[in-house]
Amino acid sequence: MAQPAQWRFNCQLPSDFQPKPLRQLLIDEWYLPKHLIFSLKRGQRVLVNDQYLPVNFDVHPGDHISLDFLATDFDHPYSNVTPDSAATVKVLYEDTNLLVVNKTQGSKTHPNQPDEVGTTLNHVAAYLAPKNQQPYVINRLDQETSGALLIAKNPAVVPVLVRLVKEKLIRRTYLTWVHGRLNSSQGLIAMPIGRSLTDKRKRQLNGGQPQMAITRYKVIGRKPGATLVAVQLQTGRTHQIRVHFAGLGHPIVGDPLYAKDPRQQRLLLHSWQLRLPLPFSFQHVTLTASLPETFKQFEQQKH
Fold first, then answer.
1. What percent of the chain has a predicted confidence (pLDDT) above 90?
2. Among residues 297, 231, 299, 289, which one has the least CA distance to residue 104?
């Protein structure tokens, strides 16, 4: 099947839009990188009311904006992920630009080898193949972490979504059960995380090449010996939630690296809610990913 060589985006500016130069709309409101704006300008592929307009001219409420991107605008216009079965794909949200799926616990986010299959991205590639679309990974979840996972469907929105993630304009809330009783109903953990000095699979507080990590949490439930916590990240370090709560002496239930639970107890960490601005629009969506069975089974256990 032939790959698309062009992607078009259309938007009408809302009635409450404050007039500003077209360049500022593209940079400040739609988060386009400057090299893509240069390509659009050079090819006269950014139109206002069906006419080319220099990017230093103002745009106004009600104006129609059209953007045309070509495959040659991107270093990697096609993701080329090998399609696998689409049976496990649970769609939380989909539009022409992006997809949010409820990732299955135990599934890797993306392949690490060119011909690897069996990952969430392989499954999504099979789901999108009939639409002649491909998945582009934006962020990842650990293999044992379930829940909302954001995937782009064309190369033009990839740098936009990456910037939204980097600037914390996409708000993700995790749910997790941790061991023990957290005495504070809410709190902030600000402790550097680096590489483990003894186990290359792990991270540790103040380990090798540490970087500051900030985690906010709020207690939303309790049971004997465990606390249910809603967590938001202000930074995005590897294993951040897992290392921070282990560092407090309250490791996540079922964590194979940082807790001492029986092997059959699965990790109870779930990407629960996602709020994001939609690219090339002025809309936001808030999505909730249903909890896996492992959470429900743990809640019903008696200690």
1. 90
2. 289
Over 80: is that where the pLDDT of 1 sits?
Answer: no
Instruction: Please state the pTM of the whole predicted model.
Output: 0.92
Annotated catalytic residue within 73, 84, 142, 255: 142
The predicted pLDDT at position 4 comes to: 79
Mean pLDDT to the nearest integer, 88-113:
94
- Residue 88's contacts (CB-CB under 8 Å, 6 or more residues apart) are 104, 107, 120, 123
Nearest in space to 136 (alpha carbons), one of 7, 302, 271, 268 = 7
Report the half-sphere exposure of 267 (CA within 13 A, side-chain side): 24
Q: Check if 68 is active-site.
A: no
Contact 95, 44 (CB under 8 A): no
Domains of the chain: 6-73 (3.10.290.10), 78-167 (3.30.2350.10), 172-271 (3.30.2350.10)
Q: What is the pLDDT of residue 303?
A: 59
Instruction: Please state, in angstroms and rounded to a whole number, the distance separating the CA atoms of residues 274 and 268.
Output: 18
Residue with tokens 């050079």: 42
Stretch 229-239: mean pLDDT, rounded?
94
User: pLDDT value at position 2?
Assistant: 67
| Size of the chain in residues | 303
